[in-house]
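Suppose you are handed a protein chain with no further information: no name, no annotation, nothing but its sequence. What can you learn? This example shows the usual starting point.
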Amino acid sequence: MEIQSLEDMMKAAITAHQSNELSEAEGIYEKVLKMAPDHADANRLMGFVCLNKGDAEQALPFLTAAIKKQPSAPSPWKLYIKALTNLGQYDNAKRAIDDGKKAVGNGQTFLSLEKHLDKKKSEQRVNPPLKKIENLVTLIRNKQFDEVLTLAGELAKAYPNSWRLHGIQGTAYAGLKRNETAIEQYEQALKLNADSPHILNKKGSALREINKTEEAVNCWTRAIEIKPNFAPAYMNLGRAFRNEGDTETALKHLQKAVDIRPNFAQAHVLIGKILKENGDNVSAIESLNTALVINPEKGEVHRMLSTIVKYTPDDKQFNQMKDLAESKEIEPESKHHLMFGLAKAYEDTGEYEKSFHYYLAGNKIQKDQKEFKIEHEEEDFLLIKRSQPIIDSFALKIADVSQSIVPIFIVGMPRSGTSLIEQIVCSHSEVFGAGELSHVVNHGLDLCLGKKQIDQSSILNFRENYLATLKLEATGYKFISDKMPHNFRFLPLICAAFPEARIVNVKRDAKATCWSNFKQHFPAKGLAYSHNLDDIVRYFKIYKDLIQAWEAKYSARVYTCDYDQLTSDPEAETIKLINGIKLDWQASCLSPHENPRTVFTASQQQVREEIYSGSSKGWEKFKPYLRDTFEDL
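A reasonable first move is to predict its three-dimensional structure. Written in structure tokens, the prediction is:
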């Protein structure tokens, strides 16, 4: 219905404003001011919107007009003084306070503003002028971290006790992945201003990056104690608890974040991600769609939705993705996500040539963003092969080790079925499914590459470090599964350090495995070979060469499970699997889709469905566009 009167227009604008729909409110205020330039409430509220956007300078003329129309009203004066203070115009702000007291006739109204102004003027002696700080913040937004450090270093000579400068330098170091140095800067800032929730929040993020989760949680908790409605800290707590597997606590923190800030798109996205991991696709779609309403150009959200939704040609979100792909508005960080989303949508609608085009485009963007050479992988595999006899010579004996926890290693190429195998295995009441753990590579890579001395002491040290971290994953279980696929590289070390371990090697059709890697969106650096079809084929070949060598050597220790046979005859192959890793039989292993555990891997959708066959034929739809890429497999 068309709005006729100024009164109706203002009611609509205020309703939108109260619902935090600021863009809509701003648009209506602009229309009102075109019709009535001196409208007091429209000018005041337009100034308020500008302040919320961080544009104090733009707010000033609106607030001046509001004061001119209603000089005795305190609200426009307060906003005007706040805008001047934010701009660092402290003398003008002081004059405005004096003028406001006279006009309003109530000095008490301005007490808090005077205290805030005094604090800002005090900070001015410690911190650089606001304009210089804003310039550094702009450089950070543009990811010009080295320039930030240069300029901030120069300013620090004049302002050695500036907590803001230390905080900005910390953010720049964090942007350069120098998190230990970032933490040092944040600690310096906190010595000068212990009650800054923003610095505590950033310090927590840097601690999380170096896996000091407990310390990070303490920082975020302290930030909330100081500022109870600090949404970013709740967001970070939600992410931390999600990563620790406590999704219930994670969702509570994230819900608090969106209660405080309804337009917090990032929090809505993470809520959707957790709900999806928990198998609640209906609620996940709702949260992700909420994030899209807030930010329709967020490519990651489109891609995440594409992993849940089965598209039809007239699907609204599918058409949104098409329009976005043709626009120039999309951010570079979002583009590869959008390409994978479109690839999945075109695959759903049977337009395989277009789908293939977008899989290529998405992977190319990711490949260009990473420094990767397949030759480096080939060299590492040779080194790993050479270290095997030495590692074997120091293998521990089962009689010499304690067995309070028995690891079950599930290895193979990514996308070969390792998630399904873990889902089956951890449906057993004695097994906790820990998912893809990085402990083996963190503690054992240098041993296998020959960069560390290999002897019985180093093998035992590896074992103790691994088990110490494994115990943190779960308590009360005899067996814990670790399904990091790339652990196939380290089977000699695993066999030597864990004589009691159960090991499953998962195999799948080579072409299906390679294609599944290519079409899957992998952000991880360790899967950089998946962004190029030729790299994938070369990687599969060195994987095959290595795993055949291990099979010949460790056949008595490793149970090999054929994914395609498993999906063709689930009951018989599941019984073989459970027997093969020496677990007592439990019928629950035949219903892995009923296992309620949270699944973080790319196969989270498949493992929630009953086991079905035929997935290894999916690549054949793209055979005309692959040409002879897979001929050597």
